[in-house]
Design brief:
The complex is a heterodimer of chains A (167) and B (144). Chain A has 167 residues and is an all-alpha fold. Chain A contains nine helices and one strand. In chain A, helix 1 (4-25) packs across helix 3. Chain B is an all-alpha fold and 144 residues long. The N and C termini of chain B lie far apart (119 Å). The chains are: A mainly alpha (167), B mainly alpha (144).
Chain lengths: 167, 144
């Protein structure tokens, strides 16, 4: 069994990004999936070579296996996307509105959203994302760039809409 | 287009947006690490308990099978196997115990009851002639 002190450090470093990542795959069971991943990690007889990659893979596999049951609740998901838990804690010095960023991210296609979340908040390199998702690095990068472009476009249009409403 | 260093392909606008998004603080995970440790411990204990229960179940099943096998096994009785051997030419095979001067206890009892203690006197014979040729009075013939 793995040393609890190490687990605490990993938990501190990876729990929040993992939950955000899990929310992209299974919004209702995100926390459960992450908790199960940490429990499984603790039960491993030996420490995995790359703990971060191991955790993300465990979360991804568990979320995808639970996705089938989630599909029956797709409509409910759409409602949850608006009323569910907030992904970010808004702060006054944020350069971008946290709620708007969440809304833009939620509107992205799942593959692009997954890549952007892994790249920005899980701090993974493009090859690491490719290994996790099974996509070529070039495809991962295309998803990333087109995802960013879509977010920028959405934020600009929402800003224009807000400006029109205020004027 | 090479993707060896894909980050270099991002536009300044992409980089600015990337930085702004990266600056957002993630919400709390909402998972208690103590709960994780507890769940891991409980799962480990459950696995250990399952192992012991499995071992106990195997032993109980083995014991049950053994008991059932014992009760259904046919009881072994002493059997006397009579083997008919071809008759030998020796006349001694027809002699009863009395021909060897060893009367059977029941016969001896009857004699004592009939004749008194004198019946206990065992007829003697000389060792030279004794075993080889029994006297006619000592021989009781049985119908074959």
């Amino acid at each position: 069994m793995i040393d609890p002190a190490k687990l605490s450090a990993w938990f501190e470093a990876h729990a929040a990004p993992l939950v955000l990542y899990a929310r992209q795959l299974t919004r209702e069971r995100a926390q459960d999936v992450v908790q199960e991943a940490f429990v499984s990690l603790m039960q491993e007889p030996r420490e995995p070579g790359n703990v971060k990659a191991w955790l993300y893979r465990a979360v991804r596999n568990a979320a995808i296996s639970g996705m089938r049951s989630d599909r029956a609740r797709v409509r409910r998901h759409d409602v949850l996307a608006e009323t569910g838990p907030t992904w970010f804690d808004p702060r006054p010095d944020d350069l971008i509105d946290a709620a708007a960023a969440q809304a833009c991210l939620a509107a992205l296609p799942p593959a692009r959203r997954e890549v952007i979340v892994l790249r920005i908040w899980s701090d993974m390199s493009f090859p690491e994302i490719g290994n996790l998702t099974g996509l070529p690095v070039s495809t991962v990068f295309d998803h990333y760039r087109s995802g960013l472009a879509a977010i920028r476009q959405q934020m600009e249009s929402s800003c224009h809409t807000k400006n029109r409403k205020t004027t | 287009m090479s993707h060896e260093e894909p980050e270099n392909d991002l536009t300044p606008a992409d980089r600015e947006l990337e930085g702004a998004l990266r600056g957002l603080r993630l919400g709390a995970a909402g998972i208690d690490p103590l709960a994780v440790a507890f769940a891991a411990g409980a799962a480990s204990a459950r696995r250990s308990l399952f192992m012991w229960r499995s071992a106990a179940a195997v032993l109980v099943v083995a014991l049950g099978v053994s008991l059932v096998a014992r009760t259904t096994q046919p009881t072994v009785r002493d059997t006397i196997v009579v083997q008919h051997q071809p008759q030998t030419t020796s006349p001694n095979t027809y002699l009863t115990m009395e021909t060897r001067n060893v009367p059977s206890p029941w016969r001896l009892r009857d004699r004592v009851l009939d004749q008194g203690l004198d019946a206990l006197v065992v007829p003697t014979h000389s060792p030279a002639a004794g075993d080889a040729i029994p006297r006619a009075s000592d021989i009781t013939w049985r119908p074959s």
